[in-house]
Structures are given as structure tokens and as C-alpha cells.
Amino acid sequence: MKAKSALITGSSRGIGKAIALALAADGCDIAVNYYESSQADSAINNANRSDAEAVAREIEALGSKAVVIGADVSSAESAQGLVDQTVQALGQIDILVNNAGINKDNLLLRISDAEWDQVLRTNLNAVFYCSRAAVKYMLKKRYGRIVSISSVVGVSGNAGQAHYAASKSGILGFTYSLAKEYGRRGITANVVAPGYIQSDMTARLNAEQTAKIADNIVLGRLGTPEDVAGVVAFLVSSRADYLTGQLIRVDGGMGGL
What is the pTM of this model? Predict the structure, then answer.
């Protein structure tokens, strides 16, 4: 993976951070993206940047180059700027991992138009904006690896997450189409769908709730960000050159075997 450059959206923490470190360990130079918006509180922007800079230092300790870029990927203009800055800083973009996402759990009748729009813009529109911007550069080299992070909820649905499920399901159709359009130009596109992964959200669960979830997982435990990162690292490596248009569930067998 040396001499390759990767952009991972939403990589200042969680799964995105684990992916950034996994690719850096394999020799990739990394663009660490964090959420930054003129509409957000400056304290939030500063905290997000601080987290991203800490990730960059870990990447550099692994011997890879890192650049920190703030952007709101739910904006077409901001997403294009993010990709352009990645190319300016790293010289190219070989790998794009669409990881940034949000959830705002609510029952259907309680989902506001604003909540629906925000979830769809961040989780689905951003995948379109970033992929469109990256493919323009990848076509020039006739090489590219695009991996988008969906969710098992995008496959099976979940009560209280109609907007989240719709956004994550949309990633599947988008990726399958992308794979068919650009496979003969050396660009592959695949989807990773995590199940229950240890995160800030699952950390709020009590021991009883966690145990109940684990009981429904064949492997008997929640996944880790590193479990997801390992699959992404495989998909962007030469070992996966003949894989495109695929969905890989990283859920410990939660969906049944």
C-alpha cells in the first residue's frame, strides 16, 4: 500500500479513526477529515480538529504522512473542496472511504422534515458528493478504491431508525451502480455494513443491555472499530483487486448464518 493516498471521511474518532490507522500501518498516506462547519459552534469545530490532529500524530508515528482537513461533507461544495485539498496535500487520491455519518433515532411519526433531511444529507448525499469528486481524479490514473460504510440496519431496517435505514440502504444501490459504471476504468466500489460496534453510543448501554445484544450475535460479543477497519484495509488492498459491487457484513453473525 506504499505510495497510495487515502481520504477517510469522519476519521477523527471511532471507526473512521481505526480505518485511518489501519491504512497508515499498511503504508498509506492519509487525509484525516473531521466535521467543520461555519454553522457549528466554534468550540465544537475546535474540539473536532483537536481530535483529528491527535489521529494525525498517530499516523505519523507509524511512518506515514498525514494531513488534517475540516469539511462538512453534507455540502457538495465542501465535499469537493475536501477532495481537492487531499490531492493538493498528498499529490493524489487512490482510496476514498465514505465513513462520515450520523443517527437521530426517532419513531416515524416523530421524525421532523429537518431531521430526515439532515440524516439523508450526511449519510447518503455525502457519499455521492465525495465519490463524484474523487472519481474525477481516479479516472485520470485509471485506478481507484472506494469503500462506503453502511450498516446492517440498511439491509434489515430497524424500528426508530427509518431515516437512518433509508440513508444506509441508499448507499447499497449507489455503490452497485458505481461499480458497474467504472469497473472497466480500474475503479472498484464496495460496501461494509457493520453491526453493533463498540462506540460512544454503545458505551451508554448498561451491562444488561449489552449482554442482551451479545446474546443475539453468533460470536457472542460486540465488534470493535478495528474489526471493521481490517475488512476495509483488505478491500482497498491488492488482495481484493477482483472484488467490486460487494456488500460485506461485519456483524459477528448477528444476521444469522
Answer: 0.95
